[in-house]
Amino acid sequence: MPDRLDVLTGSCIQIPCTCNILDKNKYTFNSTIPTFGVWIKESPDFGLHPDNVIFNSSETVNRYQGKITGNMSQKNCTTVFFNVTTSYTNKYFFRIESQPFRATDTEKSVDIVVWDLPSSPIITVSGEVKEGTPVSLNCSAVAPCPEHPPELTWTLPTQFTTENQLQENPDQTKSVLSTVTFTPSYLHHEKNITCTAVYPVGASNKTAEHNMMLNVSFSPKDTSASISPADPESVGSCVNLTCSSTANPPVTNFTWFQISGDKPIQVATGLHYSLNVTAVDGGLYFCEARNSHGCGKSNDVQLASKGPEEHNNSMVFWVAAGTLAAFLFISLISLFNFPVGTVCANQATAGEEPEERAEDQSEEIHYGDIDFSKLQTKETPAAAQDRVQGQESEYAEVNVTRRGAQEPPLNNLDGLYAQEGASDLQVLGSKEDMGSLYEGQTKTLFDLPKVFWEKETQELRVYFTQQMGADLPQQVEGKLKALEDRVFWEKETQELRVYFTQQVGADLPHQVEGELKALEDRISD
């Protein structure tokens, strides 16, 4: 009989038993004589402890309810006890009686251990679990009560078939064996499988289960290649290519290929491939991962290279874009914080007193027309210096006088005069088509009137407001191109001076002659 048996409370237990009768006994065992079996717990010396006898097959009433299912005449003493309780946990000895033959096996005993919960079943794998190859898994659970064996069920991540059977173990105990067969995939790797044993105990069931993680062998899967940085790189820069893959056992070799024409050419080995980009390195790359079960090929990645000129053009583009963004940002700030001062009041006829302006009188917009057809050139010190540098400077001077004020001198500018009118002020002089040379972007001048060149009429127009000290609105009329230049207001002489250069296509420098004071936020009376 076995050394130990585990059993559930409320269930039954079968004790496999065989008698080996030795010849040293003075009486000989006679199988033709009725034979009985006796079970003694704790100690074989039942003479001193008669209460240790818990079962005697010759008696109709015993302390333990049970029966000997073996054939005693053939020395088979297999016994079943029913309704096991935790008090059954003990050591048991067997005694055979066949008058006059009687013998107790004092050397061999069985330990019975009673549990409230069943022990877990055991899962075993027959061979390697490899993708694409059918495999069988076995689950076994002890059956201490063969009359009510456990029922085994499987939980797997795929379809399967099962086969259950009650089998005898080498120690003559019983167990239930369930075999499941399925074809694993690499997707089943590291997935859990479960075998559950359900033991019927009276009107209820007791369950136990065993979880196991599948270890599926498979060739490299999900192989992919990546490139860093991903953007096109200029010749001479460093690029890193990385290969990744999932495999069991792990990948043992990574190989890199470059597609040249229609044929892949091996260029490197290893998980990473780093190179300094040359003119011939551009193109498609892929990697191959390999282990003992096969290989996997990655996607193609594009290595786009560009020359230094393209790289410089790209940098120029981004620098220009950044400059433009900064200019727009500053312009927006200027728009919402634009302190404008009044350049001059509305012109009045000489000798007339200026009329008082009503509080609620709306602001009247005036403009001055500058005709360059007769404007004469006056050389300035700055202009002379510019000619030395191959660039000739010219300027136009606009004289705006308030009513009642003495008309200021024109600083000896021959051929340059101001013609007063209700709304027009013309300054004559300069060269023909001079204004057409000054097309470009408008420079926003704080607190200055706007100056526009009208190509069709060959006029330089200066816009300002009548009210002295008020903010100068920026009036834009038609599709005029702004004169790219500086405009200065000389407070002492009440003159508006416009400076510009004659050279076509060159940046227009800001020439300053004399001690001109730039008009800043406001012009006071």
UniProtKB/TrEMBL annotation:
Transmembrane segments: 315-336
Alphabetic keyword roster: Membrane, Transmembrane, Transmembrane helix
Domain Ig-like: 118-213, 220-304
SUPFAM superfamilies attached to this UniProt entry: Immunoglobulin
Top-rank taxon, per record: Eukaryota
Protein name: Sialic acid-binding Ig-like lectin 6
This protein's record includes keyword Kinase: no
Organism of derivation: Salvelinus namaycush
